[in-house]
């Protein structure tokens, strides 16, 4: 096996999840991945593109997906066979804390002489703690690792000192920790490229499809994501990627922006390979209406057949909605009002009222929107159990008023499992009515290690709802919303019945675990039987994953584009 310069490995949330009997619950029900969070960061693709352009060879291995795909897959066996000059593991969001640390330790055991690099939001926040782990050599901090990682790889290969590399925390030759300042926070990301052709060529190069699959169900539903920005102009108080968190953690004073033409070119390239939805991550209005309209003009010129999904952090105006319809023949939208209660919504960081929300929903319906997903959350400031149920009532009102075409899909899910480090709540929990149950990286790892249910590793509670109330309200709200969706024909009766059985079963399992714990029967025969029942249970609890899917063509892949890229790879390979 030829030596690769750097191998990027994505961990599962728990490296030993296949051996553990856990009730992981609804912690990933409103995202495409399973509770193992097998979706690797899109940043892997841009990092590989930058390194390949500079002459370095790269590889991605989605360890989490490979473990899900085959019970016989042994990460240690594959990692042992790898030949690389450096290894990289992501620690982006905290649900990966146990898996990321355990995978890093395994890599270093098998390749003790090779440097191990970490990066991501959580790695940045906990850099001072993370670097103390004996298997960690380097941490690339900040939200833009492309240039610092390129400089680091050149330094590793050529034996250059690391002192001039921005955003880098590392151990020097004597084992002393050195922390370079975060000085690389670009506001222009025109040279950052999401090239989905790169994974396509690497699948051919390594004959390993599952290593590059972004998440478990992706082969059936190959959606892709495009990022016009880095950073955010909004300040949602529980978000580690918010405006204030970006300023504190990443020295990001303003948005980093790609030109509308560059964004459109990345969309066009994705459409050459996949006949599937393409999602624009981040509100296109964040950089102003002029930017958004220029982007829509560029997309209009592409004459796409793909479905395009657009996020709006606040309801757009009627003029914006009309412009979206004019520019994108097949479009869908996502909005996250978080609560029906306008005061709770504003306390969370979403400054708009229900009239604005409903005007936008009505406008999208009148302007041919394929589907409208509306997300509500449990675990917000000032939110009580009763308030959660009132949000479900509001969902029923929305369905009754705007759901005639069956294209309005409300969801409600818990803010879980962890509070984002660096968020406003994290920095000032008491001021916002929160109590955090874990603060350090290792405390979060311990929560994951010792947890039996998703309630056990819920890392917060509020002065309005305990962990038990957050969990109970989640099940009750989802059950009621499921009934409303069935009533209004948003989901079929058979789907609703299946979901209700899942929810009731999950709820009963959690109650049984609590009963056995209270009666001191952990480790008993009844406990072992329950753990056996839970082992390997990864299906969604509150919603069918298919309900999250936007429309897709019968032919999911554009074979001509893929074959053309593969042929180009064969011709140009040395």
Describe, in plain words, how this protein is organized in 3D.
With 574 residues, the chain is an alpha/beta fold. The chain has two domains: 4-179, Response regulator (Rossmann fold); 222-548, pyruvate-formate lyase- activating enzyme (Alpha-Beta Horseshoe), CATH 3.80.30.20. The chain is built from 22 helices and 17 strands. The protein has helices spanning 43-53, 63-69, 75-81, 97-110, 121-125, 127-130, 146-158, 197-206, 209-212, 243-250, 260-273, 289-302, 318-327, 342-348, 354-366, 385-402, 424-427, 441-450, 467-487, 493-518, 525-534, 559-572, and strands at 4-10, 58-62, 84-90, 116-119, 138-140, 168-171, 177-179, 224-226, 229-230, 256-257, 278-280, 308-312, 331-338, 372-378, 408-414, 434-436, 460-462. The strands form four sheets. The protein has a seven-stranded mixed β-sheet with strand order 2-1-3-4-5-6-7, sandwiched between helices. A six-stranded parallel β-sheet has the order 8-11-12-13-14-15. α1 packs across α7. The model has no long low-confidence stretch (mean pLDDT 94).
Question: Which terms would index this structure?
Answer:
pyruvate-formate lyase- activating enzyme; alpha/beta; Rossmann fold; 7-stranded mixed sheet; single chain; about 575 residues; globular
CATH class group of the largest domain: Alpha Beta
Q: Please state the average pLDDT score.
A: 94
Strand residue percentage: 5-15%
How many distinct folded domains?
2
Topology-level CATH name of the largest domain: pyruvate-formate lyase- activating enzyme
CATH architecture verdict of the largest domain: Alpha-Beta Horseshoe
At the fourth level of CATH, the homologous superfamily of the largest domain is tm_1862 like domain
Strand elements, count: 17
Q: Which structural class do you get from the secondary structure elements? A: alpha/beta
Please tell me what the overall shape is: globular
Helical segment count: 22
């Amino acid at each position: 096996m030829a030596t690769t310069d750097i191998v990027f490995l994505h961990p599962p949330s728990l490296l030993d999840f296949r051996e553990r009997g856990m009730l992981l619950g609804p912690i990933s029900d409103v995202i495409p991945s399973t509770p193992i969070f097998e979706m690797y960061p899109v940043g892997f693709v841009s990092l590989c593109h930058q390194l390949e352009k500079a002459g370095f060879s790269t590889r991605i291995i989605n360890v989490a997906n490979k473990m899900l795909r085959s019970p016989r897959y042994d990460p240690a066996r594959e990692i042992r066979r790898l030949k690389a000059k450096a290894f990289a593991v992501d620690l982006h969001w905290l649900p990966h804390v146990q898996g990321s640390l355990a995978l890093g330790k395994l890599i270093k055991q098998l390749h003790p002489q090779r440097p191990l690099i970490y990066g991501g939001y959580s790695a940045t926040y906990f850099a001072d703690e993370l670097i103390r782990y004996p298997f960690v050599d380097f941490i690339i901090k900040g939200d833009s690792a492309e240039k610092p990682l390129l400089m680091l790889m050149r330094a590793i290969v050529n034996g250059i000192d690391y002192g001039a590399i921005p955003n880098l925390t590392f151990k020097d030759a004597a084992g002393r920790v050195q922390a370079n300042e975060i000085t690389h926070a670009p506001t222009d990301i025109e040279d950052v490229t999401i090239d989905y052709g790169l994974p396509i060529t690497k699948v051919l190069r390594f004959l390993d499809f599952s290593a590059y699959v972004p998440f478990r169900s992706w082969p059936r539903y190959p959606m892709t994501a495009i990022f016009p920005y880095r950073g955010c102009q909004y300040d949602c108080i529980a978000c580690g990627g918010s405006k204030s968190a970006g300023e504190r953690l990443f020295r990001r004073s303003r948005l980093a922006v790609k030109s509308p033409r560059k964004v459109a070119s990345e969309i066009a390239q994705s459409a050459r390979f996949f006949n599937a939805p393409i999602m624009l991550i981040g509100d296109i209005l964040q950089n102003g209406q002029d930017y958004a309209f220029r982007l829509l003009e560029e997309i209009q010129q592409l004459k796409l057949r793909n479905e395009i999904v657009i996020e709006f952090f606040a309801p757009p105006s009627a003029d914006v909605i009309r412009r979206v319809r004019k520019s994108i023949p097949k479009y869908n939208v996502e909005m996250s009002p978080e609560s029906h209660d306008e005061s709770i919504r504003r306390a969370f960081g979403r400054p708009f009222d229900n009239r604005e929300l409903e005007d936008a929903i009505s406008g999208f319906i009148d302007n041919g929107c394929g589907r409208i997903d509306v997300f509500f959350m449990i675990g917000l400031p000032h939110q009580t159990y009763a308030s959660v149920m009132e949000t479900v009532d509001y969902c029923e009102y929305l369905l009754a008023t705007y759901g005639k075409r069956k294209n309005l899909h409300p969801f409600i899910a818990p803010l879980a499992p962890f509070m984002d480090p660096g968020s406003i709540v994290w920095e000032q929990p008491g001021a916002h009515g929160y109590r955090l149950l874990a603060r350090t990286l290792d405390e979060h790892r311990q929560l994951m290690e010792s947890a039996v249910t998703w309630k056990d590793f819920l890392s917060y509670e509020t002065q309005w709802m305990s962990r038990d109330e957050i969990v109970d309200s989640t099940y009750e709200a989802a059950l009621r919303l499921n009934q409303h969706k069935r009533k209004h024909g948003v989901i079929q009766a058979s789907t609703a019945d299946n979901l209700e059985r899942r929810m009731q079963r999950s709820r009963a399992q959690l109650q049984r675990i609590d009963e056995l714990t209270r009666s001191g029967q952990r480790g008993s025969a009844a406990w072992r039987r329950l753990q056996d029942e839970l082992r390997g249970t990864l299906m969604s609890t509150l919603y069918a994953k298919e309900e999250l899917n936007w429309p897709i063509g019968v032919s999911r892949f554009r074979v001509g584009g893929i074959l053309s890229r593969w042929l180009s790879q064969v011709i140009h390979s040395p």
